[in-house]
Design a protein that fits this description.
about 240 residues, alpha/beta, Rossmann fold, 7-stranded mixed beta sheet, about 15% strand, globular, binds zinc ion, hydrolase activity, acting on carbon-nitrogen (but not peptide) bonds, in linear amides
Length: about 240
């Protein structure tokens, strides 16, 4: 049986993957890849302001709402989704959770990984999520870690665009044309009722990166997502 190729997305909060990597996820899902999103938390404290304004709101209900939204968004994008429920503001990751994530790497054997920027002075959960995503990847590569299962290769890691790139010392090194799946991304992020203020913002980001993608190629690209690479690109082609 031919198994499909795998892509892994590690998201600090339950909606981060939609804004920042929804296009890449939908694009690869459309190409027949199995895309898996791991949400380290639901963003229940720090990224659910609108829900908390409702009278009588409880932590359990916020988590449940955010889970449902994220599940529906993942379905629209064509991805599988898993939740680790590690808490947010602050996110804290135990060694046990780190090993769980390493096990996910060994199980899925992703061809690439998408996660947060290395720095983010507005949000300490995001850099921790990227640290953990990268540390788990390295553990999964270690021959002495669970020696009975095959080690992971070296999937490239792409860092998604933070909300304020300049403050995060993040640069767009890869511009991915997501025009053919833009409607799916838009549909998915419109489910994020708790963060309606971001809909227009992320539409502008996609148009901006699209214009830059056109400028850096000979193609007309309307919508794009930008990524920064962690490791050098290995290639036999320069053009
Ligand atoms: Zn977040």
């Amino acid at each position: 049986m031919e198994t499909s190729k795998q892509g892994l997305v590690v998201s600090a909060h339950s909606a981060d993957f939609v804004w920042r990597a929804g296009g890449a996820i939908a694009l690869y899902a459309k190409r027949g890849w199995t895309m898996t999103v791991v949400c380290l938390s639901f963003g229940e404290r720090g990224e659910s302001a609108k829900l908390w304004k409702q009278p009588g709101m409880t932590m359990a209900r916020v988590k449940e709402d955010r889970r449902r939204e994220a599940e529906r968004a993942a379905e629209i994008l064509g991805a599988n989704i898993r939740f680790m429920d590690l808490g947010d503001y602050p996110l804290r990751v135990s060694d046990e959770a780190l090993f769980q994530l390493a096990d996910i790497y060994r199980e899925l054997r992703p061809e690439f990984v998408l996660t947060h920027s290395q720095r983010d002075p507005y949000n300490f959960d995001h850099p921790l999520a990227t640290h953990v995503a990268q540390e788990a990847r390295v553990i999964a590569q270690a021959h002495g870690h669970e020696p009975d299962t095959p080690v992971l290769g070296a999937p490239p890691v792409f860092l998604f665009e933070p909300h304020q790139p300049e403050q995060c010392e993040w640069k767009p090194q890869v511009l991915l044309d997501i025009s053919e799946v833009w409607e799916k991304k838009r549909q998915a992020f419109e489910l994020m009722a708790a963060q309606e203020h971001l809909w227009e913002y992320y539409t502008r980001v996609a148009l901006q990166r699209g214009a830059q993608a056109s400028r850096n190629s000979d193609r007309k690209i309307r919508y794009a997502e930008a990524y920064q690479r962690v490791f050098p690109q290995v290639t036999e082609e320069l053009a």
